[in-house]
Amino acid sequence: MKVEIDDNWKSLLQEEFEKPYFEQLTNFVTEEYNVNSCFPPENQIFEAFNLCALEDLKVVIIGQDPYHGVGQAHGLCFSVNEGIPHPPSLKNIFKEIETDLNISYPTSGNLERWAKQGVLLLNATLTVKAHNAGSHQKKGWEQFTDAVITKISNKKENIVFLLWGGFAKKKGIKINKAKHFVLETGHPSPLSANRGYWFGNKHFTKTNNFLKINNLQQIEW
């Protein structure tokens, strides 16, 4: 696995890349991509960082695992490539945006447009074996993404963290809530959303209101 990552992010995270766990992780991922079909494509593993410049960072959304179906994952949590049907969680995200902001449901499930506005779409685990959810968990990715969140929390201020579901909320332990704006709700998956834990959270309005108060450019969701 080659770490193809934006220079500013690379500087921030360099000490992680030099730790023994990351070397072990690199060896594991390299072997997995050599012998199995894995997602996202190897050159897009760090795409979340390459599309969201560190200096532009305003919002962090934490996902769990990349999608494990063919052609879906491209390195951004919850996002799919152009022309790919929207997975259930993404549909519910768009439905909430529709009612929260009164804008129409989008055709494309590709969230690069968010990333380029300063939204880091970070999965806790950055790779997965095809058709095998969670297959690359507990190999070192969680330690790496914990470090990412900690370093963002320490280095930046007034970042909005959107923590959706129990898994993301656990990652929130790394965030200094005195410096940042943290919003929590249920996961947008149908299981959670249909029980009333997702719809009506208004996270998108709340995010933009916070950015506006702090004289930052609002996100066009």
UniProtKB/TrEMBL annotation:
Main location: cytoplasm
Entry-linked CDD domains: UDG-F1-like
Domain of life: Bacteria
UniProt keyword annotations, A-Z: Cytoplasm, DNA damage, DNA repair, Hydrolase
Biological processes annotated in GO: base-excision repair, AP site formation via deaminated base removal
GO cellular component, one term: cytoplasm
Domain Uracil-DNA glycosylase-like: 50-211
Cited PROSITE patterns: U_DNA_GLYCOSYLASE
EC annotation from Swiss-Prot or TrEMBL: 3.2.2.27
Protein name per the record: Uracil-DNA glycosylase
Organism of derivation: Lutibacter flavus
Organismal lineage: Bacteria, Pseudomonadati, Bacteroidota, Flavobacteriia, Flavobacteriales
Gene that specifies this protein: ung
